[in-house]
Amino acid sequence: MKTIVLPIDFSERSEYLIDEAVKFAKEVNAKISLIHVAPLDIGFAIGDMGFQYFPEIEKSEIKEELLQLNRLEQRIIAQDIDCDHLLKQGEASSIILEFAEEKNADYIVIGSHGRSGMYDVFIGSLTKSITKKSSIPVLVVPIHDAK
């Protein structure tokens, strides 16, 4: 069985990306390994006293993101596709590529835009970084065209 690594950012278009990854997984007889990379600065806020770290905010946010990953995993499993997930904090492209290598992934499926903003006009900066550095085939789903 093949393995697809599917980075998820919980943007509005994640549902569409999952649907496309599930279709592809069925076509190539693959399981899906979801990954979400949370930024290292989740618990930081800036205010009158400068930057402050609030560990309870970070813990709460990570807990919520794990719940979201669990829901997405169950949604994929309900469509008869094996699925697992991982949440890590750090620099997204490096972690995603390391995860794909660890999983011996056959493909990485990623959207052309996420919630990170408009880094590039046509392809998001994370997608650009992944496609430039990956030795694993990358399928880029054009999220901006999704309805």
TrEMBL record:
InterPro entries according to UniProt: Rossmann-like_a/b/a_fold, Universal_stress_UspA, UspA
Organism field: Elizabethkingia occulta
Stored Gene3D superfamilies: HUPs
Superkingdom of the source species: Bacteria
Organism placement in taxonomy: Bacteria, Pseudomonadati, Bacteroidota, Flavobacteriia, Flavobacteriales
Sorted UniProt keywords: Cytoplasm
Protein name: Universal stress protein
One GO cellular component term: cytoplasm
Similarity section: Belongs to the universal stress protein A family.
UniProt xrefs under PANTHER family: STRESS RESPONSE PROTEIN NHAX, UNIVERSAL STRESS PROTEIN HP_0031
Subcellular location: Cytoplasm
Domain spans labelled UspA: 1-142
UniProt main location, coarse: cytoplasm
Residues in coiled coil: none
